Amino acid sequence: MPALDPTPARRVLILGGGFGGTYAALELEKVLARQGNGSLEVTLVTRDNFFLFTPMLHEVAASDLELSTIVNPLRKLYLSKLPRLEKKLRVALDWILDLCFAKDFACLTDGRAVRP
Ligand SMILES: Cc1cc2nc3c(=O)[nH]c(=O)nc-3n(C[C@H](O)[C@H](O)[C@H](O)COP(=O)(O)OP(=O)(O)OC[C@H]3O[C@@H](n4cnc5c(N)ncnc54)[C@H](O)[C@@H]3O)c2cc1C
Question: Which among 31, 45, 100, 114 is most buried, taking Cβ atoms within 10 Å?
């Protein structure tokens, strides 16, 4: 019989896949690298399936750059930058309607309550 893992997985809920959410995921990737792939379950909820690099948005507005150069699909970005976390990451593409901090969940448009 396989031994039971004595340490329960730590669960993290990331809201939004922009700068804050993506940098939170990058930090968790470093944690996994340090711990040799410890128990961690991460859920990311975001309405957009891309990362927008806003500091160069004005160059797109001025037609100096193509929009595609500042928009990165999350899947592509995470596959290249989060090799460890990507395997432990669940992504829900949806709008967050409300947050319940007392009970630790986010409500989505389809009525689901997502917990860490
Ligand atoms: C034109 C422009 C230029 C900028 N230049 C700079 C700069 O040079 N240097 C600098 O430091 N900062 C700059 N900023 C500011 C920088 O973009 C923000 O500080 C940064 O994006 C904030 O990060 P964030 O994660 O809070 O939000 P965001 O990066 O906007 O990410 C929010 C994420 O949450 C998702 N989301 C939002 N609401 C919901 C919802 N209800 N349900 C589900 N998902 C949702 C969005 O899809 C997005 O993925 C600039 C901003 C703009 C607009």
Answer: 45
| Ligand 1 first shell, C-beta below 6 A | 16-21, 45-48, 54-55, 57-58, 95-96
Distance from Cα 3 to the centre of ligand 1, integer Å: 44
Please state the φ and ψ torsions of residue 88, each to the nearest 5 degrees: -110, 10
Dist. CA 96–CA 101, nearest whole Å: 13
CA distance 12 to 92: 13
**Is 10-114 CATH 3.40.1280.10?**
no
pLDDT at 5: 59
63-74 pLDDT, tens digit per residue, is: 999 999 999 999
- C-alpha 51 – ligand 1 centre gap (Å): 9
Atom 52, ligand 1: which residue's CA is nearest? 54
pTM of the entire predicted model:
0.90
User: Within the chain, which residues score under 50 in pLDDT?
Assistant: none
- Taking the centre of ligand 1 as the mean of its atom positions, its distance from the CA of residue 6, in whole angstroms, is 39
